[in-house]
Every structure is written in C-alpha cells, then in structure tokens.
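worker-03 picked up job from queue 'complexes'. Input manifest follows; two sequence lines, order preserved.
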Amino acid sequence: MRSTTKMVLALGGLILLSPLGLIIPATLGAGSAWGEWGADEMKRLAGHVPAGLNKMSGLWKAPMPDYSFSGWEAKGMPHLSLAYICSGILGAGAIGLAAWLIGKLLAKKSGPPRP
Amino acid sequence: MHIPDGYLGPATAAAGYAVMVPLWMAAGRRVRKTLHARQVPLLAIGAAFSFLIMMFNVPIPGGSTGHAVGGVLVAILLGPWAATIALSVALAIQALLFGDGGITALGANCFNMAVVIPFAGYAAYRLASGKSPLDSPRRAVAAFIAGYVGINAAALCAGVEFGVQPLLCHDAQGQALYCPYGLSIAVPAMLASHLLVIGWVEALVTALVVKYLQKSFPELLGAKEAHP
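worker-03 finished. Artifact:
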C-alpha cells in the first residue's frame, strides 16, 4: 500500500479513537489545561475575573466551541463523543485542505530523485 | 498550551504577531525552495495529524489536562520550516472553528507551538541522531529525546508569556488585567505538567512513528536530509 494511503487511513483511525481524549480525562475528573480556563472557571480559581480577561475572553464566537455543537454541552458523553468525531473530521479536513493548497502554491513542480 | 483570548495583554498579543509575520514569510520562502510537489500530501497529512493528536487530552495529576502536539514529528519528516507552516494552519483553524486558542493570542500560540516545538525538537533530533544511518535504533531514541525537548521548550515559553502579564498589565491598585498568575506560578505550572506527563507523550508518539517509518517507509525519513 502507498505510504499516503496508509497515513490517511491512520488519520481516520485517530478520528474514531479521538473521543478517548474526552472520556479518559472526564472519568478521572481532569478539567481544562492550565491557563485555558473560561471566565467562570477563573472566578472560581482566582476569586475574581481580571477586567481585561473578562472583556476579551468573549471576543470570538467559534462555530463549534470546544469541539462540540453549541447547546450540546449538557447532553452527556455519547453526544459529546459524536460531536468530537464530527469535529475531528471537519478540522482534519479543513486543515489538510488548507495545508495542501499552501503546499501546492509553494512546492516546486519537479520531485526529487526517488531514493 | 493554547493561550485563549484575554490572557495576554494587547502588547504581548501584538508582539506575538510581530514576531510571527516575518517568520511566516521566511517559512514560505524556505519551503518554496525545498518542498517538492511529491511532498505536498505529506504536508497536508502532517498538519491534519498534528490537529488530531491534539484532540487526545491526557489527564495530569492535579486535575488538569494536556496533549501532545506532533510538531517534532512533522519537523523530522519535512524540516522545521515546513512544520511551522503545517502547525500554523492547524492552530489557525483550531482558533477560528473551535475556539481553541485565542484569535488575539494566535501569534503567540504559533510562536510556541509552530516555531519553538519544531525548531527545538529538530535541533535535538539532528544532534542526537548524529551521522547514524536512517534505519539505526539511535534515530528512534533521537526522536524520543527530540519530542521531549521540543514540547518542554514550548511549555517554558508559554509559561513566561502567561507569567509576565501581571507585570505588564495591571490597574492602579496593582490588580492584574489579564493572566493573574505571575512567573513564579505560571512557569512551574506549565513546566511541571509537560516535564512530568505531556513531554513523555510527545516523546513516545514521535519515537513510535519514526520507528514505524524506519521499517515501512524509510524513504520518508531520508527525504529531508538528502535535500536540506
């Protein structure tokens, strides 16, 4: 099998396994990464929300916040896992396509001699 | 390590972009010279791989999480400049589509994860692998070391960026306006989680993939070094 085909299949495997990245931390009660708390979490941790942080933290409304669909936050792990897989497909697709286009734009036409 | 909006003051956020714009341009120039058409799919796969590996949150003792980035692996396969492009694309889409990492902090996040990880990791890989043949076990060990070094160097940078905020931006009463934790908290917090847990994850991912490629597709490992 060609290396590219194998690698794309491996990426598909990672997408299917990705909910482990939600389920394992949730099972062990692990929360956000250090320094990635939302304003409400910050209030709990530091006792207050710094003024600038409060103002800037809502700056951008992402279409799929936290790798989920808006409104699905309380739907439970099966729904969150499904949303996570959808995010994986969408994200990997968008990123792969964007990087491919940039690569096409930059790359030389001729390939190197095959080893 | 994805700094959200609101943690960095305007000056730091602007500095992140000011540093990245020339680096993105330099990466474009370097990649134009070295990337071959045949390697374009690998660039796309590398960017997508890095995005997906970042979805695997790993619990860290103390109740937080972290994840590998995969940036060292992309640097080993395509060189650090191409990795800068691949990782920057991944970080931009993460910020825009999923709100993972801030829009204002994108410059700083790209510096940490798309520049420091690939360059520190690649330097460690070249140093540790020396002149060893492409199929030597030493290469996998070098990849392991490189993964550990790369992500910890980036964690240190992120810790410093968080930690200088209370010094740079505070109100008349001395209350921090952005990240409220200074260097003495932010740097140890970022380093501890990465030195103790995430560094080993990045090291293992990098070494396992390099080991697999040595066996199955060794030509991918040589591509960078035959045409640096």
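worker-03 released lock.
The CA atoms of residues 15 and 88 of chain A lie 6 Å apart.
The two ends of chain A are 18 Å apart (CA to CA).
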